[in-house]
Design goal:
Blueprint: H1 2-12, H2 15-20, H3 26-30, H4 36-40, H5 51-58, H6 60-64
């Protein structure tokens, strides 16, 4: 649940990210910049392919489509 909450917070913090996503595999390189995975207290693993993964990497319009 923590990772989901953090992913949603990153998405809604910038409207451009919400519209077009953060980019493919950006989570692997920028998770520390965003303070994700409970500020590195949780294991840093990419999202499984699910609805949050689609919205996070490609944007909400892709998720809806």
């Amino acid at each position: 649940m923590t990772v989901w909450r953090e992913g949603v917070n990153v998405l809604v913090s910038n409207l451009a990210d919400l519209a077009v996503g953060i980019g493919m595999d950006s989570l692997k390189t920028h998770w520390q910049d965003w303070g994700m995975f409970d500020n590195a207290r949780l294991p840093a693993r990419p999202y499984a392919f699910d609805s949050l993964s689609l919205a996070f990497e490609r944007g909400v319009p892709v998720l809806i489509a």
